[in-house]
Design brief:
The structure holds two protein chains of two kinds.
Chain A lengths: L3 E10 L2 E11 L4 E5 L6 H8 L7 E6 L10 H4 E4 L11 H12 L4 H9 L15 H13 L5 E5 L7 H16 L3 E6 L2 H5 L4 E6 L2 E7 H4 L6 H13 L1
Parallel strand pairs in A: 3-7, 3-8, 5-6, 6-7
Antiparallel strand pairs in A: 1-2, 1-4, 8-9
Chain B lengths: L16 H13 L3 H23 L12 H6 L5 H20 L3 H7 L3 H37 L8 H28 L3 H22 L8 H8 L23 H21 L8
Helix pairs in contact in B: 1-6, 2-4, 2-6, 4-6, 4-7, 4-8, 6-7, 7-9, 7-10, 9-10
Classes of the chains: A alpha/beta, B mainly alpha.
Chain lengths: 236, 277
């Protein structure tokens, strides 16, 4: 049974159709790459899944319910959508204290997640002075605060250095190994290829392909080659 | 054949409103902006109070501090606490869009009308703190001039307490109106500028041109609650001149509450439903 279910999702911004009749599913306990070129509709789809953007048609559910109807949503879904969604004048610890209160999470989790993402030493600093990589780590700490079942991440590797990307891979693998589900969007295939179990590829708002990575690469292509082949075919 | 029963999905458990208000207050107190706004409003109020008190009784200055008229005038400097309560309210809501934190707020609490209600309550609490703090300190400084000149206090304790209650209620309601306006117009710079322009220029102009309308203007109604004579909180040519009587305490309160409520209903039906992208 799918834990994330997107069915016939449509979103138009004026004359532009950003997402066009998109359907896909994500199985529990997997890491699914949500791939597509820039402007493919990945972020809009994730925002619709999280109830931040209203679809013009279709449904998007987590655990069988729209995000807004989830009881204790932060305990079910942790999301990282943009690295800049922090008040620059607030310290990392104050930010997490607010989020812990919002999630009704135990305050002891704050230090746990700060340690987990490697920001314990910077917890008392104002976020305005953080690098992009540090903000990404803080975003992950925020998402993990309430110990969710599902992680939804939009380009989480942006701004991370090579060591950070490796750390992120380990984090996601560990999360999935404990039964968690990850849906991670990216346009940088090399960064996610080594981490994901299955892929959903979209282009111009349409579904191009969905399936296990092993199927995509069965004919000897690596994921990058398979991606370009599939997106070229849709462009024709 | 066996009938399959599907268990009902658990219903969403909304975060209790008191906790949402605590979250909003924690957001406020974890940045330097509210303290800066409070310090600025206090500084401006004291500046006006000290200038008025120092000039009182001089040939071209305000009425002498010997009696009720002169002593009540130096308290009007406290209106800056009301103006900045409204500005703080604006930052409570529009700040979420300025810093893109609305995403996290709505992920935690998908019910946007509950978020607006919590922000309005936090705006009221913070506004009340602004109004009362500025009033008490302005009063203390203003009356130290009265004492220094050897005059007796001509205003009764009951009146001073009424004005204190008026500062508290007026600033709280202007704080709520600020939250609502910040929800309707997401641009923080535009809204903060608009608040100053409305209170300092537009209300002074309308009040100066149409005396009968003056008591019904929101900032003027709040200053009337705070004990400021009609027109005394105006700027420019409209200052001082007024042929109308201020609204009674309850009527001013009801007027400000109605404005806040009407704006909140409009915001709940329009702007706060918009996509957060």
């Amino acid at each position: 049974m799918a834990i994330i279910h997107v069915q016939g999702l449509v979103k138009r911004f004026g004359p532009v159709t950003a997402v066009d009749d998109l359907s896909f599913t994500v199985k529990p306990g997997t890491i699914t790459g949500f791939l597509g070129p820039n402007g493919a509709g990945k972020t809009t789809t994730l925002r619709m899944l999280l109830g931040l953007v209203a679809p013009d048609a279709g449904t998007a559910t987590v655990n069988g319910q729209p995000y807004a109807a989830l009881p204790e949503p932060l305990h079910q879904v942790g999301a990282v959508l943009e690295a800049s969604s922090f008040h620059p004048g607030r310290t990392a610890r104050a930010h997490l204290r607010i989020q812990a209160l919002a999630a009704d999470a135990d305050a002891s989790r704050i230090e746990d997640v700060l340690d987990l993402v490697g920001l314990a030493d910077a917890a008392g600093r104002r976020i305005g002075g953080f690098s992009l990589g540090m903000r990404q780590r803080l975003g992950l700490a925020t998402a993990l605060l309430a110990d969710p079942e599902v992680l939804i991440l939009d380009e989480p590797a942006n701004g991370l250095d090579p060591e950070g990307v490796r750390w992120l891979r380990g984090l996601l693998r560990g999360f999935a190994a404990e039964g968690g589900t990850v849906l991670v969007s990216s346009h940088m295939l090399a960064e996610v290829a080594q981490t994901i179990d299955s892929v959903v590829i979209i282009d111009h708002g349409h579904l191009v392909a969905q399936g296990p990575v092993t199927e995509m690469t069965a004919n000897g292509n690596d994921l990058e080659e398979a991606f370009f082949q599939l997106t070229r075919e849709t462009a024709r | 054949m066996t009938a399959l029963t599907v268990p009902a999905a658990p219903a969403a458990r909304p975060t209790p409103l008191p906790r949402l208000v605590r979250i909003e207050l924690l957001k406020l107190t974890s940045t330097r902006l509210p303290y800066g706004l409070l310090a600025t409003s206090l500084g401006l109020s004291l500046l006006f109070t000290i200038l008025e008190a120092a000039r009182a009784g001089t040939p071209n200055g305000p009425v002498a501090l010997t009696g009720y008229a002169g002593q009540s005038q130096i308290v009007t400097g406290g209106v800056w606490g009301l103006i900045f309560a409204s500005v703080l309210g604006v930052t409570v809501s529009s700040g979420e869009f300025r810093h893109h934190t609305a995403t996290l707020t709505y992920l935690a609490t998908p019910s946007r009308s509950r978020v607006l209600a919590a922000k309005a309550a936090a705006g009221a609490v913070a506004g009340a703190v602004f109004g009362l703090t500025v009033y008490v300190i302005t009063l203390a400084v203003g009356f130290s001039f009265v004492a220094a000149r050897g005059y007796h206090l001509a205003i009764g304790a009951g009146t001073l307490a009424d004005w204190g209650a008026g500062h508290l209620v007026g600033a709280a309601l202007l704080g709520v109106i600020g939250v609502v306006v910040g929800s309707l117009v997401r641009s923080q710079v535009a809204t903060v500028t608009g608040v100053f322009v409305w209170m300092i220029i537009i209300e002074s102009l309308i009040g100066g041109l149409f005396n009968a309308a003056r008591p019904y203007l929101p900032y003027t109604a709040a200053t009337a609650l705070a004990g400021t004579p009609l027109g005394a909180a105006s700027f420019g040519p409209g200052r001082g001149a007024s042929g109308a009587a201020p609204l009674p305490f309850a009527a001013s309160t009801a007027l400000l509450a109605a404005i806040a409520l009407a704006g909140a209903v409009i915001a709940a039906r329009t702007t706060i439903r918009r996509d957060v992208s």
